[in-house]
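During the no-cost extension, the postdoctoral fellow (Dr. R.K.) reprocessed legacy sequence entries with the updated structure-token encoder. One reprocessed record is reproduced below for audit purposes.
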Amino acid sequence: MKEINADEFQKEVLESGKVVLDFYSTECPPCEAVAPKFEGLAILYGNDIKFLKIYRQQNRDLAEQLGVKSSPTLLFFNNGEQVAESLSGGIKRSDIISNLDSMLSASRVNEIKADIKPTISDFDVLILGAGPGGLTAGLYLCQAKVNTVLIDIALPGGQVSTTHEVSNYPGFIEPQKGFMLSHNMSEQTKLCGTAYKVAVDVSMVDLDKKEVVIDEFETIRAKRIIIGTGTSPNLIGIPGEKEYKGKGISYCATCDAKYYGDKEVVVIGGGNSAVEEADFISKFASKITMVHQFDKFTANMTAQEKIFANPKITTLFEHEPRAIIKNGDKMEVEVENLKTSERTRLISDGIFIFIGMKPNVDLFKNKLELDSWGYIKTNEDMQTSVAGVYAVGDVISKKYRQITTAVADGTIAAISIAKELN
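Re-encoded structure tokens follow.
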């Protein structure tokens, strides 16, 4: 795999037949998550398609010319023409494969996939999700000499790794960078001896058999399963949101705020995430307009005070977005005044959406007892309604979702399992 710059784009991409190009950034958890998938697929498909990387922060002009507004972004080319759909943000391995397959003949695709050999691995405990809850469970189980594997579709850290600053985690006097806090948690668990299988696609989960299939070829079996799959950002569900995800719309300030220096952005939301991330974005952007459906923020008062004291930030209370339109290099949000029903358009350079989270339970929601909001119900030992299956962290039904509560959940589940197995 080769890394190029903008000066080499013509020769290496436009004049080089079949090419896939990865625009990546530093301090970008989704970029780190896609990197091993990209490298692994380069081994499989590299004889037919050229795999290239380009550092977005040092090649901004080219990125903007190609409409790249988010990191990571994968672009696919065939004889100088862009083909397939560009992929941005939390990119799945299966989506990359689908695009690569579309660039080759069916017979060649079959030949490539024939080289993939199924494997089976056995562990005592399988932890699905490497956020604070999963990492803590892995640490406690490892120290109890329980053979444990951590599986995650991204890199370890969960939502913490995309939080720019954490000021309320015990033991640290100064606020900690989210990615460093999650990195330290991960390294502690890894050094203990817990096995890691991260940045993978989870193809199948069988809670009864205690089996998980990753990347469509490796089956992992265990005696116990801990689910710590966390949550994902909610979508607004308005016209233009899906079309412009990664092309002017972002859900990660840590990843993309740096590209809006001296530019104007719109932030949608009014909870802790929206308010705290808007303050972070203001370190780069020249102007921020927040759009919130209620007449006041729901974030904590400390975060609100910082927002109200920030001259770069204004807020439209009691407004809701109705559509997102891309007009040249500008992004437009059509918003409705909930009092008057009047609609206006906000013109900006980019849009950040922070409107809450939803539990990641799609692979097994029909197997577990859930609450009315779709979160997994557990008992005091973190056991779910399925024997031998536990759940921890933000994915479970509870009143408060914090890093500290996830860590507590992981501790409880691990101690409970260790006592059972020993």
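The chain has three domains: 2-114, 119-232+357-421, 249-353. Residues 249-353 form a domain with the FAD/NAD(P)-binding domain fold (CATH 3.50.50.60). The remaining legacy entries will be reprocessed before the final report is submitted.
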